[in-house]
Amino acid sequence: MTHGMKRSRWPLVVALAALLVGCGDHESEKPSAPPEHITADTPLLRMIQPPAAMQGRIRTEPVAARRVPEIVTAPGEVSLDLKQVAKVTSKIEGQAVRVYAQLGDRVRAGQPLVAIGSLQLDQLVEEYLVAKAQADVAENSFRRSERLRADQIITERRFVEERGRHLETKARYQHIREKLMNMGLTERELTELEQGTHEQSHRYTLTAPIAGTVVAQNIVLGQGVAPGQELFEVVDPSRVWVFANLPIEQARRFKVGDQGTIVPKGAEPLAAPLTYLSPVADEKTRTIRIRFEVANREGRLKPHEYVDVRLSFGGLPTLAVPASVVTMVGNDRGVFVQREQGYAFAPVQTGREGDGWVEILHGVSEGDRVVSDGVFDLKNVLLREHIDSGGEG
After folding, report:
1. How many other C-beta atoms can be found within 10 angstroms of the C-beta atom of residue 184?
2. Measuring CA to CA, how many Å separate 345 from each of 18, 89, 201, 357?
3. Strand-by-strand arrangement of the 357-362 sheet
4. Cα–Cα distance, 211 to 109 (Å, whole number)
5. Structure-derived torsion over alpha carbons of residues 191, 196, 202, 206, reported in degrees to the nearest 10
6. What are 342's strand-pairing partners?
7. Residue 66's closest CA among 383, 351, 298?
8. Are 362 and 349 in contact (CB under 8 A)?
9. Which helix (H) or strand (E) holds 216?
10. CA angle at residue 372 from 325 to 65, to 5 degrees?
11. Measuring CA to CA, how many Å separate 131 from each of 31, 143, 175, 177?
12. Burial annotation 229-239 (CB, 10 A radius, 16+ → b, else e)
């Protein structure tokens, strides 16, 4: 063989290595029928006899019936958990005399955000102090009347009048007290007001309803404030919601409590429970809106970002093999099957995949032993045998 002839073999070797299983005839370009189940008499590709050193690395397991979950994937969007959102508004008219928190600050529940000076509050404090004094006087009179009535010193009519006055002043006092507490004043502050030691009684202080981050600030020092005006928004993104839409026939397969997987772009998947399925289909898309609650303490999910959501459901038992045993040889997807004479590659037709398993529709039978460890080694042996046989041709 001349030097030129030796060089001419390489294109043939490369072509054979790419095809792996041989070029076949002209009809190989036509769509092939699904492979039949493998039996002991079914003709396979050439039997592979791996070297002795390789035998110890090969492991097999039987093809058996298993439940292969079907995976449903849909686009989703991250939203704030509404239980983790608080909008802070004023209940009275006034002016910001001190701003304690700024945009981006982390605040704890009860932390002051802004102090508002208000004539309305001053008037209410004055009414409160007067009502407190009247209530105390009326209560003392009523207690004295109770003792005198027991000794039959005063009439029943006088006693009833004193009791009515006591109840009336007490109700007025309690009403004003509740107004002040609804504005954010505490028991301690009210006590200080009654004792005359509260130096800032004219200030209405708004505090953070929840712990979180200030994501909106609509107030600055000296700004006028109207009742109902939103001054701050505080959110806690340590738990978020993820919404998605499923076709009605898919949504029927799931229930509240099912576990799903949230897959952010460029980040690790997160497990999350399904907490809501809309009882009403969308009128335009005919889909069902679903919601997941996701723990987000590390802040990996950002509200308003797009993610993928995955749900799985199991069907009836079917023949299945681990996904790791299925490999490609040329254009065929298949598995390596153990036989008495060695190992052979068997093309298979697969169905659904999930949880690390692949459904086998055609190609192997229940009980056949497929190679689970050593698939790569057997592919290498098969490749070398085809290269060698092609080179001799």
Report:
1. 16
2. 16, 72, 87, 19
3. 64-66, 318-322, 357-362, 349-354
4. 5
5. -20
6. 339
7. 351
8. yes
9. strand 212-217
10. 75
11. 94, 18, 10, 9
12. eebbbbbbbeb
For the chain, the residue count is 393
Sequence-ordered alpha helix ranges (H) in the chain: 3-19, 52-55, 119-150, 156-182, 187-195, 248-251, 375-392
Could you please state the CATH topology (level 3) that the domain comprising 27-69+317-378 is classified under: 2.40.420
Which one, of 203, 187, 207, lies nearest residue 195 by Cα? 187
Q: Which amino acid is at 9?
A: R
> Cα-atom radius of gyration of the chain, to the nearest Å?
40
Instruction: Extract the tokens encoding 226.
Output: 């109207």
Residue with tokens 């052979």: 344
Q: Is the pTM of this model over 0.85?
A: no
Q: Are β-strands 287-295 and 112-117 bridged in parallel, bridged antiparallel, or unpaired?
A: unpaired
Q: How far is 73 from 263, CA to CA, in rounded Å?
A: 10
pLDDT string in tens for the chain (393-residue length): 444 444 444 343 334 344 333 333 333 333 334 444 444 444 445 677 888 778 778 888 888 888 777 788 999 999 999 999 999 999 888 999 999 999 999 999 999 999 998 888 888 888 888 999 999 999 999 888 888 888 888 888 888 888 999 999 999 999 998 888 887 677 887 887 777 755 554 678 899 999 999 999 999 999 999 989 999 999 999 999 999 999 999 999 999 999 999 999 988 999 999 999 999 999 999 999 999 999 998 889 999 999 999 998 776 788 889 888 899 888 888 999 988 888 889 899 988 787 788 888 988 889 989 998 988 888 888 877 767 665 443
Please provide the CATH number assigned to the domain covering 71-83+237-311: 2.40.30.170
What are the structural domain ranges in the chain?
27-69+317-378, 71-83+237-311, 119-201
Rama region for 389: left / alpha / beta (φ>0; ψ in -120 to 50; rest): alpha
Distances (CA, A) of 383 to 118, 144, 358: 87, 110, 25
